[in-house]
Amino acid sequence: MSVSTRQSEIIQQWYHRPSLQDALACVKRELDQALPTCFGYHLVQLADIEFVACYKGSKINHCVRCQPDGEILSESEHLPFDADSIDVLIAMHSLDTSSDPHQVLREIQRVLAPQGQLFLVGLNPSSLSALSGLLAKLTLREQTSPRSALSVHRLDDWFRLLGMERTRLRYFAHLPYSGTHSKLNRALSAVTRWLEAHRMPAGRIYFIRATKQVCAISRPHLARFRPRLRAIGIGKSVVTSRQTKETLQNND
């Protein structure tokens, strides 16, 4: 089993947890608020795992899911769409489940139309919950939580290289908790909501909105008109006057 396949299975099982279900509900709420402001002809939801449709609030008529249980089955590294053809793309952990996340982001940038909108959901390696996964790796225990090595700062560098601009960033699932109604779980849930409301960058999941920028067409530089100076015979007139004066003196 490849590493990316194992990662996909872990993320699929990971979303059965109550804290991650709440985080997914927060992601859907963010999309419900943002998608009505996006216009165009084509919307694609991209994932290497099974996800329900997260684009119910979109005004775009043609919406498809490019994922194992969707209308289109394809690899994230090689999307079956023309360049500059997709107006909105929702990528659900597409960078986390790929062995070549930079290639996935290049493909996303390729298929997005100018000023196209990208909504990216991924794993935050700097979260509080990621420390338990690092501890499991050091103690050689079986991996039960998905791993991620792509920080938001690194993604910002990739965005700049690909001509994209991040316009929104939110973090969710700061603390894990179960579905029981114990005092501890209620307290953890309340603390998580407080951390989310105050935009603390320690959540297990990040939600990014980015725009594909289009460089302005630069006109060719036109050299300024510089009038040439013409000789108007001033020097010749001076010479002629001097020769005339010398001739008069000699005649005297």
Largest sheet data: 6 strands, mixed
User: What pattern of helices and strands is seen along the backbone?
Assistant: HHEEEHEHHEHEH
Using the alpha-carbon principal axes, give the shape.
Answer: globular
Radius of gyration: 32 Å
Mean pLDDT: 81
Number of helices: 7
Helix content percent band: 25-40%
Quantity of strands, as a count: 6
**Which regions have little confidence, pLDDT < 50, spanning 5+ residues?**
216-241
Distance between the termini: 118 Å
Physical arrangement of strands within the biggest beta sheet: 2-1-3-4-6-5
Walkthrough of the structure:
The protein starts with a helix and ends with a helix. The radius of gyration is 32 Å and the shape is globular. Residues 216-241 have low confidence and may be disordered. It has a six-stranded mixed β-sheet, with helices on both faces. It has seven helices and six strands, in the order ααβββαβααβαβα. The protein is an alpha/beta fold and 252 residues long.
In short:
By secondary structure, the chain is an alpha/beta fold. Helices cover 37% and strands 18% of the residues. The chain has helices spanning 3-14, 18-34, 101-111, 130-138, 152-162, 183-197, 234-251; strands at 42-46, 62-66, 86-92, 112-123, 164-172, 205-212.
